[in-house]
Specification:
mainly beta, 6-stranded mixed beta sheet, 4-stranded antiparallel beta sheet, globular
Length: 112
């Protein structure tokens, strides 16, 4: 059963922007944080950003701070990742997580 569904990935030129979405079809009864992770080719999966249930607390890894913005709409049970000023180093599969499960990932490719 698919619980988290990411979308919005694709190919973008360096300097461009993308917004990823993650819809949570499963969890409805508990409050939970959500996070975006990324896994570049040949590297470990690492966290990019996380956001509290209320949305008041957002945290970012040093590698994305200032470029990425995480947000959420609890009415839609969706979390977003706005990515700006992308460079090829941000090429990766991006996954969302709701403390319990993972999405299938969405590929982001940044061309130089």
């Amino acid at each position: 059963q698919v619980q988290l569904v990411e979308s919005g990935g694709g190919l973008v030129q360096a300097g461009g922007s993308l917004t990823l979405s993650c819809a949570d079809a499963g969890r409805t009864s508990k409050t939970y944080a959500m996070g975006w992770f990324r896994q570049a080719p040949g590297k470990e999966r690492e966290i990019a950003a996380a956001i509290s249930w209320s949305g008041a607390d957002a945290q970012y890894s040093d590698s994305v701070k200032g470029r990425f913005t995480i947000s959420r709409d609890n009415a839609k049970r969706t979390v977003y990742l706005q990515m700006n000023s992308l460079t090829p180093e941000y090429t990766a599969v991006y996954y969302c997580n709701n403390e319990v499960s993972w999405g299938q990932g969405t590929q982001v490719t940044v061309s130089s």
